[in-house]
Design goal:
The protein is an alpha+beta fold. It has 2 domains: 145 residues, VKOR domain (de novo design (two linked rop proteins), Up-down Bundle); 170 residues, no CATH class. Helix content is 47%, strand content 15%. The strands form 3 sheets. The chain has an 8-stranded mixed sheet, with helices on one face. Helix 1 packs antiparallel against helix 3 and helix 4 packs parallel to helix 6.
């Protein structure tokens, strides 16, 4: 290992530490992460660990690489090359994270890609032999993700049902229908629908958010101990739905997905607030799987991957807000 390459690796690892430290400071003091696109917020909402702790783990990792490079510059090469192993561990971990973004949530986090670039650079600088090991390792992780089925097979696993994505249920006596409402905490159209659901009616509502939230400002809800927002995103991706809000209606002959604020409010007004439920929608079906119907009017929707633009201008009364779960202490 050349002395010059080790020196460059040492300062690259230190630069990565500084970059992560800035990110942690922004999360702690402002509650917002430094990111060039909306993929970061989406990825953060789908992790089981708070973003600040994930960044802390990255900071510790690059500090370990920095110390190892500094030690290798002044000491003879040890019998066990643990610096090589440390770099490969980072490459494998990033392979999992990148694969998850590409094959599961279908969006890339720019901040994550910058960290990934640091790890790739460190492996390249460590030498040609490192690339002979690192490239097949990273390719193996990507290949594994491509052969895994994150679609219908996941839903058929034990305890992986629609209820697995439900944070809370609002029950009424003798419900005429069981409905699942897919929404986001930052979508104003979703908040308008939540406002319309404040009054009790003849339908049982299950609330399935696509991001992490703590609670809903709706009375008389029965909360579940755990829920999976990633599963809710998966369900929508199976029917190629990329917008919210969405209402899923369970029918004897299959499932019906209703898209858009106006369509959903009209449906629940005609179906859930009447003694004799009626269903009427001026919409057409499109490219839906067998046994499923998707009613699409493209009115009052937010993109599933992006926050709604000009949210304050789109609605004067956003209704009850979901309380997002953040990484702030």
């Amino acid at each position: 290992m050349k002395h010059t390459c080790l020196k460059i690796m040492q300062w690259s690892a230190l630069l990565a530490c500084g970059f992560i430290a800035v990110q942690m400071a922004m999360i702690i003091f402002t509650g917002k992460a430094l990111c060039l696109n909306d993929g970061c917020s989406i990825a953060e909402k789908l992790t089981t660990v708070a973003p600040v702790y994930l960044n802390l783990a990255g900071l510790v990792y690059f500090l370990a690489v920095f110390c190892a490079c500094r030690w290798f510059r002044t000491k003879p090469l040890p019998a066990f090359d643990w610096l090589r192993v440390l770099l490969l561990i980072g490459l494998a971990a990033e392979g999992v994270l990148v694969s998850y973004q590409v094959f599961v949530i279908h969006t890339l986090c720019s901040y994550c890609l910058i960290i990934f670039s640091f790890i790739v650079l460190l492996n390249i600088l460590y030498g040609r032999q490192q690339l002979f090991i690192g490239i097949p390792l990273f390719a193996a992780v990507l290949t594994t993700f491509t052969i895994l089925n994150f679609g219908p097979a996941l839903l058929t696993l034990q305890n992986q049902t629609l209820a697995s994505g439900t944070i809370a249920v609002r029950k009424c006596a003798q419900p005429s229908k069981q409905l699942y409402f897919f929404f986001s905490s930052d979508c104003p159209h979703c908040k308008n629908v939540l406002k319309a659901l404040e009054n009790c009616n003849s339908c049982e509502f299950h609330f399935n958010p696509v991001d992490k939230i703590k609670s809903l400002s709706i009375p008389e809800l029965e909360y579940t101990p755990t829920y999976s927002p990633a599963l809710n995103r998966l369900i929508l991706s199976l029917v190629k739905i990329e917008t919210i809000p969405v209402l899923l209606v369970q029918n004897p002959d299959g499932l019906t997905f209703i898209k858009g604020e106006e369509s959903i409010i009209r449906f629940i007004s005609q179906t859930c607030f009447r003694e004799e439920p009626q269903l009427y929608m001026d919409s057409s079906l499109y490219n839906a799987p067998q046994g499923m119907s998707v009613y699409d009017e493209k009115q009052g929707e937010c993109n599933l991957q992006l926050d709604c633009p000009d949210a304050d201008k789109q609605t004067e009364n956003p209704g009850p807000a979901a309380v997002p779960e953040t990484g702030k202490p």
